[in-house]
Amino acid sequence: MRQRIRNLFTKMNTNGTKLPEDTELNPSTENEELMAEGTEQVEDSFSAAEPAEATEAGENWKDKFAELNDRYLRLYSEFDNFRKRSARERIEFSKTASADIVSVLLPVLDDLDRAARAVESATEISVVKEGMELVHHKLKNLLATKGLEEMKAIGEPFDAELHEAITSIPAPEESLKGKVVDEAEKGYSLNGKVIRFAKVVVGS
Questions:
Q1: Pairing outcome for strands 163-169 and 148-151
Q2: For the chain, percent of residues with pLDDT exceeding 70
């Protein structure tokens, strides 16, 4: 920049008229000082403008950083509140679900208490057997209303998604090979999802 301005001053005569490009000049010492002073003034004007622009850019950067930081803190706070609220809702839901199941089973517990007292004074086994069958039927119906289903296993092909083989025995019939021939423990599903696998004996 300094050299370009110096060249410009060099090509100017004393009355301000621009000289031809090929004119040779021998500027005096006074002209040299004037050219140097003019060059420094122009450079000072540029150097004075640069810090102002840098300062403005710095202020903009600080404002943008503060805005983004504030937005981040708000989002983090909202997410933390959501996480805590979800945890509380899960705990409350589990408590409510347990209370619902227990309240459904209370009538069955009452029937079992009455059956236990009746056994003490019963003289006929048929009466006790009938009472136990009624309680058992009532319990199964109550659980069925909650989505509990008993899975059929005997005679069905062995399915690792539904059954748990505890042993295998020679199949009593050719058609029972690879199928369930006995059931040690029943399997159940709740609303279509297996909650307990049936423990079975498979024919080989």
A1: unpaired
A2: 71
Closest CA to 156 of 143, 147, 165: 165
Residue 48 covered by a domain: no
67 in a structural domain = no
Are 184 and 200 a contacting pair, CB within 8 Å? Answer: yes
d(CA 93, CA 106) in angstroms, rounded, equals: 20
- φ/ψ of residue 11, rounded to 5: -90, 5
- What strand order describes the sheet that includes 148-151? 148-151, 187-190, 193-196
Structure confidence by residue, pLDDT tens digits, 167-181: 989 988 888 888 989
Residue 195 belongs to some domain of the structure: yes
Residue 182 is classified by DSSP as: E
Domain that holds residue 154: 149-204
pLDDT of 166: 92
**Residues 4-38 as b or e (16 or more Cβ within 10 Å = b):** ebbeebeeeeeeeeeeeeeeeeeeeeebeeebeee
- Kind of pairing between the strands at 198-203 and 163-169: parallel
CATH number of the domain that residue 202 is part of: 2.30.22.10
- pTM for the complete prediction? 0.51
